[in-house]
Amino acid sequence: KAMVLWRKYGIFVIIICIAIVAGTAGRVGWREYKAAQRAEESSRYVIAARLLEKGETAAAIASFQSLGAEANTGYAVIAKFQAAAARVDTGDKAGAVTEYDRLAADDGIDPIFRGLAKLQAVMLLIDNGAAADLNRRIAELLSPESHWRYSSLEMQAVLKLRDGDVAGARA
Protein backbone atom coordinates (compact mmCIF):
# COMPACT_ATOMS: atom_id res chain seq x y z
CA LYS A 1 0.00 0.00 0.00
CA ALA A 2 2.81 2.40 0.86
CA MET A 3 4.45 1.74 -2.49
CA VAL A 4 1.22 2.51 -4.33
CA LEU A 5 0.87 5.79 -2.42
CA TRP A 6 4.50 6.67 -3.12
CA ARG A 7 4.12 6.01 -6.84
CA LYS A 8 0.94 8.06 -6.94
CA TYR A 9 2.03 11.01 -4.72
CA GLY A 10 5.80 10.70 -4.42
CA ILE A 11 6.53 13.27 -7.11
CA PHE A 12 4.41 15.82 -5.23
CA VAL A 13 6.27 15.12 -1.98
CA ILE A 14 9.57 15.62 -3.77
CA ILE A 15 8.34 18.86 -5.40
CA ILE A 16 7.12 20.20 -2.04
CA CYS A 17 10.46 19.35 -0.39
CA ILE A 18 12.40 21.04 -3.19
CA ALA A 19 10.11 24.10 -2.96
CA ILE A 20 10.66 24.32 0.81
CA VAL A 21 14.44 24.09 0.44
CA ALA A 22 14.49 26.58 -2.44
CA GLY A 23 12.20 29.00 -0.58
CA THR A 24 14.32 28.81 2.56
CA ALA A 25 17.52 29.30 0.58
CA GLY A 26 16.00 32.28 -1.23
CA ARG A 27 14.83 33.88 1.99
CA VAL A 28 18.18 33.40 3.72
CA GLY A 29 20.00 34.65 0.62
CA TRP A 30 17.82 37.77 0.44
CA ARG A 31 18.34 38.47 4.15
CA GLU A 32 22.10 38.12 3.74
CA TYR A 33 22.07 40.38 0.68
CA LYS A 34 20.15 43.09 2.56
CA ALA A 35 22.48 42.79 5.58
CA ALA A 36 25.53 43.11 3.32
CA GLN A 37 23.97 46.13 1.61
CA ARG A 38 23.28 47.82 4.96
CA ALA A 39 26.81 47.04 6.15
CA GLU A 40 28.33 48.52 2.99
CA GLU A 41 26.21 51.67 3.25
CA SER A 42 27.04 51.95 6.95
CA SER A 43 30.73 51.70 6.12
CA ARG A 44 30.42 54.45 3.50
CA TYR A 45 28.59 56.65 5.98
CA VAL A 46 31.29 56.15 8.63
CA ILE A 47 34.01 57.01 6.10
CA ALA A 48 32.19 60.23 5.15
CA ALA A 49 31.68 61.12 8.83
CA ARG A 50 35.39 60.59 9.51
CA LEU A 51 36.27 62.86 6.61
CA LEU A 52 34.06 65.50 8.19
CA GLU A 53 35.73 65.01 11.57
CA LYS A 54 39.16 65.46 9.96
CA GLY A 55 38.06 68.76 8.47
CA GLU A 56 37.95 67.46 4.89
CA THR A 57 34.52 68.98 4.41
CA ALA A 58 34.45 69.04 0.61
CA ALA A 59 35.32 65.35 0.43
CA ALA A 60 32.79 64.57 3.16
CA ILE A 61 30.04 66.46 1.32
CA ALA A 62 30.85 64.59 -1.89
CA SER A 63 30.79 61.27 -0.02
CA PHE A 64 27.49 62.05 1.69
CA GLN A 65 25.93 63.17 -1.60
CA SER A 66 27.14 60.03 -3.34
CA LEU A 67 25.74 57.84 -0.58
CA GLY A 68 22.49 59.82 -0.60
CA ALA A 69 22.09 59.25 -4.33
CA GLU A 70 23.02 55.55 -4.34
CA ALA A 71 21.82 54.12 -1.03
CA ASN A 72 18.67 52.02 -0.81
CA THR A 73 18.27 52.14 2.96
CA GLY A 74 17.73 54.86 5.54
CA TYR A 75 21.34 55.90 5.07
CA ALA A 76 20.27 57.80 1.95
CA VAL A 77 18.14 60.26 3.90
CA ILE A 78 20.66 60.58 6.73
CA ALA A 79 23.47 61.21 4.25
CA LYS A 80 21.48 63.93 2.49
CA PHE A 81 20.87 65.69 5.80
CA GLN A 82 24.53 65.35 6.72
CA ALA A 83 25.61 66.82 3.38
CA ALA A 84 23.39 69.85 4.01
CA ALA A 85 24.68 70.23 7.58
CA ALA A 86 28.27 70.01 6.34
CA ARG A 87 27.55 72.85 3.93
CA VAL A 88 26.52 74.98 6.91
CA ASP A 89 29.86 74.16 8.55
CA THR A 90 31.65 75.55 5.50
CA GLY A 91 29.60 78.74 5.62
CA ASP A 92 27.56 77.83 2.54
CA LYS A 93 24.13 78.54 4.02
CA ALA A 94 22.59 79.08 0.59
CA GLY A 95 23.80 75.66 -0.54
CA ALA A 96 22.49 74.07 2.65
CA VAL A 97 19.09 75.71 2.19
CA THR A 98 19.01 74.43 -1.38
CA GLU A 99 19.79 70.90 -0.12
CA TYR A 100 17.09 71.15 2.54
CA ASP A 101 14.60 72.45 -0.03
CA ARG A 102 15.45 69.51 -2.27
CA LEU A 103 14.83 67.13 0.63
CA ALA A 104 11.56 68.88 1.49
CA ALA A 105 10.33 68.47 -2.09
CA ASP A 106 11.27 64.78 -2.34
CA ASP A 107 8.04 62.76 -2.24
CA GLY A 108 10.12 59.58 -1.94
CA ILE A 109 11.01 60.22 1.68
CA ASP A 110 8.85 60.10 4.76
CA PRO A 111 6.82 63.27 5.44
CA ILE A 112 8.37 63.67 8.89
CA PHE A 113 11.81 64.04 7.28
CA ARG A 114 10.45 66.43 4.66
CA GLY A 115 9.06 68.56 7.47
CA LEU A 116 12.40 68.44 9.27
CA ALA A 117 14.13 69.65 6.12
CA LYS A 118 11.69 72.57 5.86
CA LEU A 119 12.29 73.45 9.49
CA GLN A 120 16.08 73.26 9.07
CA ALA A 121 15.87 75.64 6.13
CA VAL A 122 13.79 78.07 8.19
CA MET A 123 16.29 77.90 11.03
CA LEU A 124 19.12 78.78 8.64
CA LEU A 125 17.20 81.69 7.15
CA ILE A 126 15.65 83.07 10.34
CA ASP A 127 18.37 85.66 11.02
CA ASN A 128 18.31 87.47 7.69
CA GLY A 129 15.82 85.80 5.36
CA ALA A 130 12.93 87.66 3.78
CA ALA A 131 9.95 87.72 6.14
CA ALA A 132 7.47 86.78 3.38
CA ASP A 133 9.54 83.73 2.39
CA LEU A 134 9.96 82.65 6.01
CA ASN A 135 6.25 83.10 6.74
CA ARG A 136 5.43 80.95 3.70
CA ARG A 137 7.86 78.25 4.81
CA ILE A 138 6.62 78.32 8.40
CA ALA A 139 2.94 78.28 7.34
CA GLU A 140 3.48 74.91 5.64
CA LEU A 141 4.49 73.44 9.01
CA LEU A 142 1.78 75.00 11.19
CA SER A 143 -1.03 72.58 10.40
CA PRO A 144 -2.36 70.71 13.44
CA GLU A 145 -1.27 67.40 11.87
CA SER A 146 2.33 68.53 11.44
CA HIS A 147 4.94 66.83 13.61
CA TRP A 148 6.84 70.11 13.54
CA ARG A 149 3.95 72.38 14.54
CA TYR A 150 5.36 73.52 17.88
CA SER A 151 8.86 74.05 16.55
CA SER A 152 7.31 76.08 13.74
CA LEU A 153 5.34 78.17 16.22
CA GLU A 154 8.62 78.87 17.97
CA MET A 155 10.26 79.91 14.69
CA GLN A 156 7.26 82.10 13.93
CA ALA A 157 7.72 83.83 17.29
CA VAL A 158 11.44 84.30 16.62
CA LEU A 159 10.64 85.85 13.25
CA LYS A 160 8.11 88.24 14.80
CA LEU A 161 10.61 89.17 17.48
CA ARG A 162 13.27 89.75 14.83
CA ASP A 163 10.90 92.09 13.02
CA GLY A 164 10.12 94.01 16.24
CA ASP A 165 6.66 92.56 16.89
CA VAL A 166 7.14 91.63 20.57
CA ALA A 167 3.39 91.38 21.22
CA GLY A 168 2.96 89.07 18.23
CA ALA A 169 5.86 86.92 19.40
CA ARG A 170 4.27 86.50 22.82
CA ALA A 171 0.85 85.62 21.40
Describe this entry's structure for a reader.
Helices cover 80% and strands 0% of the residues. By secondary structure, the chain is an all-alpha fold. The longest helix has 52 residues, at 2-53. α1 (2-53) runs antiparallel to α2 (57-70) and α4 runs antiparallel to α5.
Share in helix: over 70%
- Terminal-residue CA separation: 88 Å
Radius of gyration: 26 Å
Taking the sheet with the most strands, its summary is: none
Mean pLDDT: 93
The count of strands amounts to 0
Uncertain parts:
none
The structure class reads mainly alpha
Strand fraction equals under 5%
- Please tally the helical runs, counting DSSP H or I stretches of 4 or more residues: 8
Write the layout of secondary structure elements.
Elements lengths: L1 H52 L3 H14 L4 H15 L3 H13 L5 H15 L5 H9 L9 H14 L3 H5 L1
Helix pairs in contact: 1-2, 2-3, 3-4, 4-5, 6-7
Name some characteristics of this structure.
171 residues; mainly alpha; 8 helices; 80% helix
Please sum up the structure shown:
The protein is mainly alpha-helical. Helices cover 80% and strands 0% of the residues.
